[in-house]
Sequence to fold (266 residues):
Amino acid sequence: MSRKKKGIDAERDLIHKFWGTGKWCALRTAGSGSMHFPAPDILASNIVRKVAIECKVTKDDKKYFPKDEVKQLKNFSEYFGAEPWIAVKFFRTSWFFLNIEDLRETKKSYVINKRNAILKGLSLKEFIGEGFE
Amino acid sequence: MSRKKKGIDAERDLIHKFWGTGKWCALRTAGSGSMHFPAPDILASNIVRKVAIECKVTKDDKKYFPKDEVKQLKNFSEYFGAEPWIAVKFFRTSWFFLNIEDLRETKKSYVINKRNAILKGLSLKEFIGEGFE
Fold:
């Protein structure tokens, strides 16, 4: 399976889980062609929250996010009125939801390793759960 | 150019126009594969409004919208907390923004003809303009 296909499958998996709650709706965004307007991978909403999510799957123990990608997520979220979130899934882990502040800044990127994702991240259940409504 | 490509180009045209206002952001949604969760073609937002738009281009003098499509637009909008809108562009006209109530209901579809679109529809400028903020 190609990397792109795996990424799309992972996004669809999350979309499915959001709808499955019966309280959240979610959609995947499409590229805007050559125009390059900022857009998150997923936009989800329940009755009180709107969340813009950049989501990534990796087989490595850490995942890098280019600064421009994070900046676009922030920009879009501000414009749209949504909370910016990072969702990351490592090999044989479930999804972790992280704030941008939970990532470590390097010269060109932000990065999160598996250990810190487990320590700082919210599980999907925590992210969409009753504690947040 | 294929019909699908023309549709995507039309959506991109609208996205571009929303961003061009400096006050709106907008994104195209991607299909959710075999899952068929409801999603509008475009989701746009300014500081106070969120709008879900089903948009269509036609060379005919009328445009049909299958009932299921309209129902999905309503459902999604209710879940997401957005206003449901129809955007339609006829041959050599600009975009018209219509409420679902402006469409005429037939047995299997909703339909709008060019004449009624011109009479009842808002121009893009009216839709995103100062009168609505």
Observations:
- The mean pLDDT of chain B is 90.
- The interface with chain A takes residues 8, 12, 15-16, 19, 25-33, 35, 37-39, 43, 45, 47, 50, 76, 79-81 of chain B (CB under 8 Å).
- Chain B has one domain: 3-132.
